[in-house]
């Protein structure tokens, strides 16, 4: 996809980046404002802290993906699969504007990842 055709995508990604940054700021602030939970105070508070920490991790990854896509726009590579160099399907970019892989490559990577998850780590 040519750089000149990406202004809509860039605007969309910048909006998503601002939204994710705001959510991250709110969650991090909430985590800082929470008091340490004593073990006997119950599992609910611990569960909420763990859930918030997991959500922060997901949003941080999302922010990295958005930043990566914005750099691809700047370099003129947006919309090109980083694995096979074929164009990423426009429908895929519409749904996931930060996609870096075409649908076929994404499926292959997920299949490889799924296969490797079941394996025990190699010990040297």
Describe the overall structure.
By secondary structure, the chain is mostly helical. The chain has a single domain (3-117), classed as DksA, coiled-coil domain (Four Helix Bundle (Hemerythrin (Met), subunit A)), CATH 1.20.120.910. It contains four helices and no strands. It has helices at 7-33, 43-75, 90-95, 103-117. The radius of gyration is 19 Å and the shape is flat. The N and C termini lie far apart (45 Å). The model has no long low-confidence stretch (mean pLDDT 86).
What is the secondary structure topology, with strand pairs?
Layout: H1 7-33, H2 43-75, H3 90-95, H4 103-117
Helix pairs in contact: 1-2
Features:
single chain; 124 residues; mainly alpha; Four Helix Bundle (Hemerythrin (Met), subunit A); 4 helices
What's the short story on this structure?
By secondary structure, the chain is mainly alpha-helical. 65% of the residues lie in helices and 0% in strands. The chain is built from 4 helices and no strands.
Strand content: under 5%
How can the largest sheet be summarized?
A: none
Contiguous runs where pLDDT drops below 50 for at least 5 residues: none
CATH architecture: Up-down Bundle
Q: CATH homologous superfamily, by name?
A: DksA, coiled-coil domain
């Amino acid at each position: 996809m040519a750089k000149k055709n990406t202004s809509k995508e860039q605007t969309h990604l910048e909006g998503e980046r601002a939204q994710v940054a705001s959510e991250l700021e709110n969650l991090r602030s909430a985590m800082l404002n929470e008091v340490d939970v004593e073990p006997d105070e119950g599992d609910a508070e611990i569960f909420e802290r763990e859930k918030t920490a997991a959500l922060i991790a997901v949003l941080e990854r999302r922010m990295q993906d958005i930043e990566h896509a914005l750099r691809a726009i700047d370099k003129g590579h947006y919309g090109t699969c980083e694995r096979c160099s074929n164009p990423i399907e426009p429908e895929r970019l519409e749904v996931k504007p930060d996609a870096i892989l075409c649908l076929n490559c994404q499926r292959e990577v997920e299949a490889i990842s799924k296969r490797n998850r079941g394996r025990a780590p190699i010990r040297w």
